[in-house]
Input
Amino acid sequence: MLPHLKRIEIVDNDTTILQFMRRALDGLGCNTCFHHCPVEALECLKSNKGDILLTDYEMPKMEGPELIARAKSFLPNLISILMTGNGILQPMDSVSLMSKPFSKSVLVDMLTSALANDR
Output
């Protein structure tokens, strides 16, 4: 179980990654919502107020850093994790970074750590 987790929004245009994360997080006690499109994820965040945003870096229509910035404009305490499979990311303020591919244990550890650091 992931402690104190109310809602996690996961955004990646890669269906394989979304399916992996759905299986990895199933049964851990978190309320997850999966999105292929960052624009749809942003609308969902506006209406459902997520706790964690886990997003890919490179996506059509809107890249991950822009999605995070827009979401934080109305959810300033949103925990944000940016993932990529395309090399090294530049650090961003208040954003955790995660390289793809990753295992279930790395995913759970990242989410648990992000929640612990937010307290």
